[in-house]
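It is worth pausing here to work through a concrete case rather than discussing structure prediction in the abstract. The textbook approach is simple: state the sequence, then state the predicted structure, then interpret. We follow exactly that order.
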Amino acid sequence: MEKRYEYLNRILKVKSPLALISRDLVDSIIEKRSEENEPIADFLLIAELLKKEKSESAKTRAEFIIKQCNGEFCEDFFEEYRDSWGIPIFAENLISIKDFKNGFLWRMKSYTTSFGDDSIVEAWFLKSYETLFITRYEAWESGKSGDELFHVEYGNCKKIFKKFISEYGLYKFVKSPVLTHKDLKELSIEYSNDADFIEEIKQNVNWQ
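Step two, the predicted structure:
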């Protein structure tokens, strides 16, 4: 039987089929998505492009997008194929079907160390292509009365990450491939006198 750490290591290496879609197209679509607006026609365009790909994971992800855009919850479908999309099953169900809307991740959640897989979930959010589509960030902690939401940020992924970097000094976010080479160049100029920040930038795969 596969051990849990072996399972997580295996799935964390799986690249989301969404990475097959042109980054320029993705960036144009996520600019349209917000708490108030879901660009369904654009989501269905992504689904059509995925259907044309050879990989089975791309085709099943296309089907998932179409199903959710048509109003289906499709939890069983999600659970069946999530591994092939690079979305691990984390302890305490930290990422579930409830975090997806119209086929795409809509919120990023961070957890205190009270949760078993908190650091692994954070690493996944920072590296996964799925995170590009979020419109909200939530911070959770485990309290006496149950899980408690204590902080929320709104906006697309880039805006949220850049805010965390500039306002909160959370340099770890600069390592995320969510930020393009252009984004990183702009940040490197802004933080040119900060050696620690520049070292963090160099760890981003899009820096080269």
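Step three, interpretation. The longest helix spans residues 56-69. Residues 36 and 164 are 23 Å apart (CA to CA).
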